[in-house]
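FW: tagging you since you asked about this chain on Friday. Here's the raw sequence from the shared folder, copied in full. Didn't touch anything.
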Amino acid sequence: MQPTRGYVFGPVYSRRLGWSLGVNNIPYKVCSYTCIYCQLGRTIRLTTERRRYSSPEELVREVAEALEKHRNVDYVSFVPDGEPTLDTALGTELRLIGELGARTAVLTNSSLLWIEDVRRDLSEASLVSLKIDAGDEQTWRAVDRPAPGLSFQKLLEGIYVFAEERPTDIITETMLVRGFNDDKASIEKIADIVARVEPRRAYILVPTRPPAEDWAMPPDEERLVEAHEVFRERGLDVELLTAPEPRAPRLRGDNPLEEVYATLAVHPLPEDVVAKLLEEAGIPAQEGLQALLGRGDVARIEYRGRMFLARRPRPAGLWRRKHG
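HL: got it, structure written out here
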């Protein structure tokens, strides 16, 4: 068991979930994948071993306190620094949060759905988002870079069983990366899998924030239009998410700097957006930005000509920093 820590951040605004109170139940970059496009960087501990990573009592207490302050939250969402289903406390936490009267969501990479206990834990959620990035083993290994011991066949079996059981609302997310899974043949294979899942909505995403690998780039617009049509032809309610999440109209907490800092742990933000949010909260932009950067684990990262702030607890020498 790890020491007690802060589990809750936000609320933040999401096009998929509305106002979402974030829950981070996994230590930084403990995951079963090390995806080339991950906005949190490369995985530090690549594993499929499930164990207790969080304290249900502390986590649910933090959620309850946050819900008292933020009564208009649409979902309490498990969107951690790693794969949420690695935590054996997940099912208990989802059940207890549900007893508070809140809707819950879990964003999972789908890699452990072949394990019955994982499916049972996820059945406690109001909504589950399944990641489906590939239609064959070679592409899956190239894009998602799974932990040893996982296989594409296991992945599909778990996804299909969970979809057949359908204990909760299901949506899917597919990240398209130029030159890896954006050709028509790859998209058709992915769409066939998603169609069998029959999600309420299928989302197609592209890298919009600094990825783990600098060369993980968004597909061309023509490819995205083609992908949308391929999904639509299979009867899917599909939506393209090809730009960073729209920023929340305002910061909603009592401590704006802490709210931004907590959000940066799992959600890099454009620097100009952070500056605007801070100014609207009554904090001079440069003063607030310097305070965030001065913490030591927040850095400025350039991606596709735009500056982002991101938080990654790694040695300073590994940061791609830009000062100015």
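FW: Confidence is low (pLDDT under 50) at residues 314-324.
HL: agreed, and The radius of gyration is 19 Å.
FW: great, closing this out.
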